[in-house]
């Protein structure tokens, strides 16, 4: 039985061109990801799944604008446009994503008071999503990560994967980044330092 799983991060409409928090070229990775899904025995997806009025939305903080930073009880928080609101088309997976093979969909960011970039933990870095336990019970030890965005949800997931004892690689042709003030290069460096393989 394969001990390697493909982890597809947030390949949702709102992160693709035309979406509320579009990543440039986000839809270009869909054929790459579909090809990978066909090669893996185990596929896990994450889905950003915010309630309306989520605390990470700039619209929830009068006078604040998207991409500003504020302090939350769990630390600094980047503010975002309203995106991936539960039950909306924006929160749906990209329509061309061949995701039906997925054994698990991890929904994250559904707690209104805390954001969640990583597939493993909320942004307080202590509240788990349950993914670690699921993978360990399944005997999975290696993860290949693709999805959106390279410098946020993909990177934080990869860093937490290594921190939880998994071997992790990120396939960069299956990712696209937001790149706010050099954030892609910064997070690529952090992943390399942590032992994430970048391919």
Describe the structure.
This protein is an alpha/beta fold. It has helices spanning 30-37, 131-137, 150-163, 183-194, and strands at residues 4-9, 42-48, 69-72, 75-78, 104-108, 142-148, 167-176, 197-198. The strands form two sheets. A six-stranded parallel sheet has the order 5-2-1-6-7-8.
Write a brief structural summary.
This protein has 199 residues and is of the alpha/beta class.
Strand order of the largest sheet: 5-2-1-6-7-8
Instruction: Summarize the helix and strand pattern as letters.
Output: EHEEEEHEHEHE
- Straight-line N-to-C gap: 24 Å
Counting H and I runs of at least 4 residues, what is the number of helices? Answer: 4
What is the percent of helical residues? 10-25%
Low-pLDDT sequence parts: none
Average pLDDT value? Answer: 97
- Give a quick account of the main beta sheet: strands, pairing sense, barrel closure: 6 strands, parallel
Gross geometry: globular
């Amino acid at each position: 039985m394969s001990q390697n799983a493909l982890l597809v991060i947030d390949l949702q409409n709102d992160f693709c061109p035309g979406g509320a928090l579009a990543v440039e070229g986000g839809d270009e990775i869909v054929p790459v990801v579909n090809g990978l899904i066909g090669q893996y025995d185990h596929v896990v997806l994450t889905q950003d799944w915010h309630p309306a009025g989520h605390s990470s939305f700039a619209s929830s903080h009068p006078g604040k604008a998207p991409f500003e930073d504020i302090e939350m009880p769990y630390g600094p928080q980047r503010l975002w446009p309203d995106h991936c609101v539960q039950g909306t088309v924006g929160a749906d997976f990209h329509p061309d994503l061949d995701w039906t093979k997925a054994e698990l969909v991890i929904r994250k960011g559904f707690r209104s008071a805390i954001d969640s970039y990583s597939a493993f933990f909320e942004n307080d870095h202590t509240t788990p999503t349950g993914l670690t336990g699921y993978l360990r019970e399944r005997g999975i030890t290696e993860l290949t990560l693709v999805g959106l965005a390279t410098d946020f949800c993909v990177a934080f997931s990869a860093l937490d994967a290594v921190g939880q004892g998994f071997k992790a690689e990120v396939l960069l042709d299956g990712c696209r980044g937001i790149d706010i003030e050099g954030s892609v290069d910064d997070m690529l460096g952090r992943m390399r330092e942590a032992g994430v393989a970048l391919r």
